[in-house]
Specification:
This protein is of the alpha/beta class. A hairpin with a 3-residue loop joins strand 2 and strand 3. It has an eight-stranded mixed barrel, surrounded by four helices. The structure holds ligand C2E and magnesium ion (3 copies). Keywords: Phosphoprotein. This is Diguanylate cyclase.
């Protein structure tokens, strides 16, 4: 029997539900205008080589600045964009933008940085993805080896044979591939071996308590061992403390990303961070 908060709670609850539904509908209706209105931007979060502590790349992360609602988190708007399908155009825009930025940093003398871009389920299911990636590389002049695409386990597991085909085709373009949020989904290990991946990204939910929770430490250790036996590197997400970093170094994890080094930053700030770290 539902008797959660006594009298009045039911109407309160439905008002809140209504607010949420209204907001969702509003975001849904306005999402297809973000590109023409210039409300979408990319922030860049540094990825660091743990051994040398050098910045070796960035992950591009979408940001939506709504004129009235303010900042809307990608955790909120990406599922809605996915549902309506506009994520395909938004994702293509992000690919072009990130490739241009990576090329600009390269031209500014920052060396061969890796630029990681997230792919959504709809994008990955779209047969035009190969053309989109090719066009982004060609237009920007970024060498394919500098681009890394991230897919999640849930995307990869949606149609296993097609995933193998698509990843193999992407790999043929010369780009790198990473599995994002690894450990949070349900990867079929027998397929993992058939995916031509370069990196596994250990999800931040494991990294967060890595020094205090022996289970999370054990999972991360197992992910590192498996990645290495498949010739992949490991990128740890959500590295917030020196203790996290030292523990991950001890496990043989190659790269780290997290607030310990930098939050995701607008392009100009990320460029300044890059110059500061190189000095
Ligand atoms: P993700 O790809 O796993 O990205 C990592 C998220 O962790 C980012 O959240 C980042 O800001 C956050 N993060 C990084 N370091 C730390 C840390 O040390 N501590 C904590 N607590 N968090 C940290 P963000 O930017 O809010 O993005 C959330 C998710 O939205 C991403 O997770 C990704 O799944 C999705 N997303 C973002 N941009 C794009 C995009 O361009 N395309 C697609 N398809 N998805 C995107
Ligand atoms: Mg990612
Ligand atoms: Mg991730
Ligand atoms: Mg994550």
């Amino acid at each position: 029997q539902a008797q959660e908060g006594g009298p009045g709670s039911l109407s309160f609850f439905s008002a809140e539900m209504n607010d949420r539904a209204t907001r969702r509908l509003r975001l849904h209706n306005e999402l297809h205008k973000v590109l023409e209105r210039g409300e979408l931007s990319l922030h860049y979060q540094a990825q660091v080589d743990i051994a040398s502590r050098r910045v070796i790349g960035f992950e591009a992360l979408m940001r939506w600045q709504h004129p009235e609602l303010g900042f809307v988190s990608p955790v909120e708007f990406i599922p809605i964009a996915e549902e309506s399908g506009v994520i395909v155009d938004m994702g293509a825009w992000a690919l072009r933008e990130a490739c241009h930025q990576a090329k600009a940093w390269r031209d500014a003398g920052h060396g061969p940085l890796r630029m990681a871009v997230n792919l959504s389920a709809r994008q990955f299911a779209d047969d035009q993805l190969l053309d989109t990636v090719n066009a982004a590389l060609a237009e920007s002049g970024l060498p394919p080896g500098s681009l890394e695409l991230e897919i999640t386990e849930s995307i990869a597991m949606q149609g296993l044979e097609r995933t193998v085909t698509m990843l193999t085709a992407l790999k043929k373009l010369g780009i790198a591939l990473a599995m994002d949020d690894f450990g949070t989904g349900y990867s079929s290990l027998s397929y993992l071996k058939r995916f031509p991946l370069d990196a596994l990204k250990v999800d931040q939910s494991f990294v967060r308590n890595i020094t205090t929770d022996s289970g999370d430490a054990a999972i991360t250790r197992a992910v590192v061992a498996m990645a290495h036996s498949f010739d992949m590197i490991v990128i740890a997400e959500g590295v917030e403390t020196l203790q996290h970093l030292e523990f991950l170094a001890g496990l043989g994890c190659e790269d780290a990303q997290g607030y310990l080094f930098s939050k995701p930053l607008p392009a100009a700030d990320a460029g300044a961070y890059l110059s500061r770290m190189a000095a």
